[in-house]
Amino acid sequence: MTEKRLPLQGIRVVEFVHVIMGPSCGLVLADLGADVIKVEPLDGDHTRKLTASGAGFFPTFNRNKKSIAVDLKSPEGQENILKLIQSADVLTENFRPGSMDKLGFGFEALSKLHPELIYCSLKGFLAGPYENRAGLDETAQMMGGLAYMTGPRGRPLRAGASVNDVMGGMFAAIAILSAVIERIATGRGQYVKSALFENCAFLMGQHMTEGFMTGKPVPPMPERIRAWAVYDTFETADKEMVFVGVVTDTQWKIFCDAFDLSDLFGDPALKTNPQRVEARPRVLPIVRALFAKMTKQELLAKCEELGLPYAPITKPEDLFHDPHLIASGGLADITLMNGIKTQVPIMPIEMDGRRFSTRLDLPKIGEHTREIIAALGYPASEVDRLIKDGVARTA
Predict the structure, then answer these.
(1) What is the mean pLDDT of the segment spanning 84-103?
(2) What's phi and psi for 274, nearest 5 deg?
(3) pLDDT score at 1
(4) How wide is the angle at C-alpha 11 spanned by C-alphas 9 and 12, nearest 5°?
(5) CA distances in angstroms from 35 to 14, 131, 143, 306, listed in the order given
(6) 221: nearest Cα among 153, 273, 280
(7) pLDDT at position 2 over 80
């Protein structure tokens, strides 16, 4: 049976990236079928060596890619990579501003040699007063309002995942695909850019508008008045925590009927959602006392039966065993650098009922160097010499 064509099959991407933002963009394109070639220094992407909270960066964002390891400071190495770029549709980079220009791989230079090239920079900031600052997910969260919204007042707290890095990579992929479509009409590539700070500002749009609409300063999440009366985490009899939401008038009736709260349902002071929100100090103690008599599993089962929004409080390690992720094929197999096999979540999309998982395992440093250079027209003897002379490296 012929394997179904992948959406981006035939698109070649050359990436000069590290950490999360750049690699996440390449991962999206690679999972969708693009031929993504990761250009690494001879000692490999430094992200491979990170430990502690950075230990998951490389394994999570680099499957389905090929690796070429070349000394970019040598003329021969630069020549190899320049030929590779000329064979590509897309180039991505997320190094400090000016770094690619120093290598001779800036947009202005490359667009003259390859007018159809789509060149994507993933940076801390778009054009403006901040554009030459070093940017991190952390700095974007602090100056973009997200840390203020996440922590309690006076204690700004970054979100528990690299949301700006990952979303910045996603927006870069959107820009790249838009440029690919536009190139069909114009025949020319273009320079596109994605940035952490502007991504975070985009996330804050709902809160900016809220403050404008209400005329009041927007409080951080721990102090916010919730939009519904029952919309919180609750402790169960076995000391576990469960989130439960009751977010419509219909759900309020179902909830009150199921838990014998006819006094609350019949109270005219609780008839509308705004009234119930105002009465949270009265309603919540009743609900907390009710749920405190139930075990976690009893409460989860009851909410499932009633069709109410609910969620157990899950730790990252619990997701390896999540029955939905397992049954839906939501986890991709990978082999770590030490040879141990594990799984990572795949993109949260379906196309024609199809999910996109691992085709190529995590590449070793320079695993595809010989294959890629040979395909550029170099004879095997020349590839051997480049490797012997330390210009290139194979796994």
Answers:
(1) 96
(2) -55, -35
(3) 47
(4) 125
(5) 8, 30, 36, 47
(6) 153
(7) no
The burial of 303, by beta-carbon neighbours within 10 Å (0-12 exposed, 13-18 middle, 19 or more buried), is given as: buried
Residue-level pLDDT at 121: 98
User: Would you identify the CATH topology of the domain 12-203+328-393?
Assistant: Rossmann fold (3.40.50)
160-165 average pLDDT score: 97
Hey, CA dihedral for 43, 48, 50, 51, is it positive or negative?
negative
Helix (H, G, I), strand (E, B) or coil at 197: helix
Candidates 156, 280, 159, 274; CA nearest to 220 is 156
Residues in the chain: 395
- Rounded distance, CA 241 to CA 193, Å? 42
Across 175-191, b (16+ Cβ under 10 Å) vs e yields: bbbebbeebeeeeebbb
User: pLDDT tens digits, residue range 46-65?
Assistant: 999 999 999 999 999 999 99
What tokens appear for 10 in the block? Answer: 């035939």
Highest CATH level, class, for 226-316:
alpha beta
Catalytic residues: 165
Give me the residue spans of the domains in the chain.
12-203+328-393, 226-316
User: What's the rounded mean pLDDT across residues 155-176?
Assistant: 97
